[in-house]
């Protein structure tokens, strides 16, 4: 096998593929070719670049999509699949947090956090998702947790943005430690191409004014900083901000100078009338998470907010499959609309808005198949039962494609013929099963202590 250095310098030509690049320069090509060098897409189209390549791979008619982006993930919840239901039968958003997620994020130790990161990233990569913007919370394992995620993402060959969810709810010491973790991570990876640190805040309603002011004072000394925060997911967040004398959550964050062009505001379901304008003016980016919102029964971000702010698409920890999230978003919104009413184009959120967000955050071209973009590809062995053309790509991508057979990041195959090239899937899954059993037991003990 050639060395990494040699691999990076090699020019690889992928031929005989269907290229689906709907928001790129060349949008759709049958029997096309992609030339890759130095981890970057160099040429794309219906031309024979054979003379330029060191290696030629015939894709035999397979379908190539850009590697996808999850704009809001919680890898820490990866071991929640199949977890026992809380005994208290939560009836609202606050009770869901108190009885599920705020127990899980206190029960995570280093080993179970590692198992969550590995199995969560594996789930993303398996579905052709090559960039994950994560919002992390392990409240009793703070220092070093973001570094652990960066190390695992590197092993997987994925782009990762990470932020530790600060909050007041576990006391001043944990708050301070979380702030230090965010700042240390920021300083370590500020100039990285594949790791994008953000400053993580849980949500406005779990902070005092003093804590928010303290965060604002600290981050203003950093360069290129941005926050990653849940905003107005449930009405309780908005009610809390009003009780504290603010017009809204967004106005509270903005009044402290916490919103800027690198910031991610998540959900925005209960935005107040002026919030849209404040977010727009600040340059902050909104991320919409339809399957999680439906699951928590907190309402739905309005089409006007999603469209005006060019919202990204995230899963909020629900899954690693972005094609499924786009499909589910389409269906959830449809279920609230009258016949003939126009809806949000979720494929646009996934293939246009998410690449714009990732490109801005990572400061390099991510999420399209145009020359100059990172060679992150999801390749599907797809034999459609109807004709696939430039005009019906949404139908085929959301309702036809399954898991990719090959996934490439930075010009290197991470999955080839459905097998991971560098990691052991079986070891990761076995370890995750083992860790989840212990984690759920610790959760049960914490639940009993309430
Ligand atoms: Zn979230």
What is this structure's SSE topology?
Blueprint: H1 4-9, E1 12-20, E2 28-37, E3 40-45, E4 55-58, E5 63-66, E6 68-73, H2 93-107, H3 110-126, E7 129-134, H4 145-156, E8 159-162, H5 172-189, E9 195-197, E10 199-203, H6 209-219, E11 227-231, H7 235-243, H8 249-255, E12 264-267, H9 275-282, E13 285-288, H10 290-296, H11 303-308, E14 312-313, H12 322-334, H13 346-362, E15 377-380, H14 393-399, E16 406-409, E17 412-416, E18 419-420, H15 425-449
Parallel strand pairs: 1-4, 1-5, 6-7, 7-8, 8-9, 10-11, 11-12, 12-13, 13-14
Antiparallel strand pairs: 1-2, 2-3, 5-15, 15-16, 16-17, 17-18
The protein binds zinc ion (ZN).
Molecular structure report:
- The protein is an alpha/beta fold and 450 residues long.
- It folds into two domains: 4-67 and 364-418, Urease, subunit C, domain 1, CATH 2.30.40; 68-357, TIM Barrel.
- The chain contains 15 helices and 18 strands.
- A hairpin with a 2-residue loop joins strand 16 (406-409) and strand 17 (412-416).
- Helix 3 (110-126) runs parallel beside helix 4.
- The model has no long low-confidence stretch (mean pLDDT 95).
- The structure holds zinc ion.
- The site of zinc ion has 6 residues, from loops.
Task: Report a brief summary of the structure.
Helices cover 40% and strands 19% of the residues. By secondary structure, the protein is of the alpha/beta class.
Reported by name, the CATH topology of the largest domain is TIM Barrel
Uncertain stretches: none
Look at the structure and give the mean pLDDT: 95
**What's the helix count?**
15
Please outline the major beta sheet: 9 strands, mixed
Helix content estimate: 25-40%
Q: Count the domains.
A: 2
**Radius of gyration, Cα only, in angstroms?**
22 Å
CATH superfamily of the largest domain: Metal-dependent hydrolases
Highest-level CATH class of the largest domain: Alpha Beta
Q: How many β-strand stretches?
A: 18
CATH architecture of the largest domain: Alpha-Beta Barrel
Strand content is 15-25%
Bound heterogens, unique: zinc ion
Query: Structural class, please?
Result: alpha/beta
Q: Gap between N and C termini, in Å?
A: 55 Å
What is the overall silhouette?
globular
């Amino acid at each position: 096998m050639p060395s990494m250095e040699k691999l990076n310098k090699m020019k690889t030509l992928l031929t005989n593929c269907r290229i689906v690049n709907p928001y790129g320069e060349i949008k759709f090509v049958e029997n096309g070719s992609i030339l890759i060098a130095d981890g970057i897409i160099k040429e794309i189209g219906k031309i024979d670049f054979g003379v330029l390549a060191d290696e030629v791979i015939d894709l035999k008619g397979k379908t190539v999509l850009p590697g996808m982006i999850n704009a809001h993930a919680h890898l820490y919840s990866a071991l929640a699949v199949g977890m026992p239901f809380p005994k208290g039968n939560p009836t609202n958003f606050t009770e869901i947090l108190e009885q599920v997620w705020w127990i899980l994020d206190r029960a995570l130790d280093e080993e179970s956090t590692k198992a969550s990161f590995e199995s969560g990233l594996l789930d993303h990569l398996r579905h052709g998702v090559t960039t994950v913007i994560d919002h992390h919370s392990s409240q009793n394992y703070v220092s070093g947790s973001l570094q652990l995620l960066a190390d695992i993402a590197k092993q997987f060959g994925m782009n990762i943005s990470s932020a530790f969810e600060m909050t007041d709810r576990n006391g001043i010491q944990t708050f301070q430690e979380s702030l230090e973790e965010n700042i240390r991570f920021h300083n370590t990876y500020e100039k990285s191409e594949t790791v994008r640190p953000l400053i993580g805040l849980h949500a406005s309603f779990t902070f005092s004014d003093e804590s928010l002011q303290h965060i604002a004072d600290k981050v203003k000394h950093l360069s290129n900083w941005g926050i990653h925060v849940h905003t107005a997911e449930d009405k309780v967040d908005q009610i809390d901000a009003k009780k504290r004398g603010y017009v809204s959550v967004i106005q509270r964050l903005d009044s402290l100078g916490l919103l800027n062009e690198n910031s991610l505001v998540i959900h925005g379901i209960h935005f107040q009338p002026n919030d849209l304008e404040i977010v727009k003016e600040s340059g902050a980016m909104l991320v919409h998470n339809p399957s999680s919102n439906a699951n928590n029964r907190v309402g739905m971000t309005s089409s006007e907010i999603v469209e005006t702010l060019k919202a990204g698409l995230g899963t909020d920890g629900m899954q690693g499959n972005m094609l499924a999230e786009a499909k589910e978003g389409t269906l959830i919104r449809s279920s609230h609309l009258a016949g003939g009413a126009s809806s949000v184009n979720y494929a646009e959120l996934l293939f246009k808005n998410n690449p714009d967000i990732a490109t801005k955050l990572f400061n390099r071209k991510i999420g399209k198949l145009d020359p100059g973009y990172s060679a992150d590809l999801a390749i599907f062995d797809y034999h459609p039962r109807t004709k696939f053309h430039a005009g019906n790509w949404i139908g085929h991508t959301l309702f036809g494609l399954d898991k990719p057979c090959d996934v490439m990041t930075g010009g290197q195959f991470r999955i080839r013929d459905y097998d991971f090239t560098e990691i052991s899937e079986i070891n990761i899954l076995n370890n995750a099963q083992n860790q989840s059993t212990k984690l759920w037991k610790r959760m049960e003990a914490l639940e009993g202590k309430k």
